[in-house]
Amino acid sequence: MEYASKLLENAVYEVSQLPGIGKRTALRLVLHLLKQPEQQTTLLAEAILKLRTEINFCSSCYNISDTELCEICANPKRDASLVCVVEDIRDVMAIENTSQYQGLYHVLGGKISPMEGIGPQDLNIVPLITKIKEGNIKELIFALSSTMEGDTTNFYIYKQLEGIDVTTSTIARGIAVGDELEYADEVTLGRSILNRVPFENSMKAN
Ligand SMILES: [Zn+2]
């Protein structure tokens, strides 16, 4: 594509680095911003910059948080003996939307994927195991998507728990194999957490 301006070209290039945004869409968005009052672009740029420089992750569950402990971990009404293991914060949001779950979360930050070069050391697995060894967690619920990477990650964590007194379960598969959690509707997702099954059973089924 030929651009009349280097500034335009740079802006289009940066926007097109976002997932799912091609050069054409990027150009449309950039031209849209140019038509808006300048203030709009300033607010957008400041919000992104602030997000990047000031965002914190909960020191316990790695959920995004503006405070040291996220609102969920800091809430005394939540059941701290129950921890739901999820891939990323979108899953926390999806499960929270069901209003069916009163425990805490642990956000791994991804799934083990040899294809993408993501190993256990790249995920928040060690802090999870450390937390469980402290002995206050009674049940760990695996709620990763049931893809091969999700199953591999579940199994890896499960193996790390050998000899530790903790119950493991996995969300019931109302959610079809390969589906991502965030796409499940709230009722299905809510039910699949309430109807969770022992993790050992899910392995036998495979
Ligand atoms: Zn937290």
From TrEMBL:
Listed Pfam families: RecR_C, RecR_HhH, RecR_ZnF, Toprim_4
Keyword annotations from UniProtKB, A to Z: DNA damage, DNA recombination, DNA repair, Metal-binding, Zinc, Zinc-finger
SMART domains listed in its UniProt record: TOPRIM (SM00493)
Origin: domain of life: Bacteria
Transmembrane segments: none
Domain Toprim: 81-176
UniProt family annotation: Belongs to the RecR family.
Stored NCBIfam families: recR
Protein purpose: May play a role in DNA repair. It seems to be involved in an RecBC-independent recombinational process of DNA repair. It may act with RecF and RecO.
Protein name, entry field: Recombination protein RecR
Source taxonomy: Bacteria, Pseudomonadati, Bacteroidota, Flavobacteriia, Flavobacteriales
Gene that this sequence comes from: recR
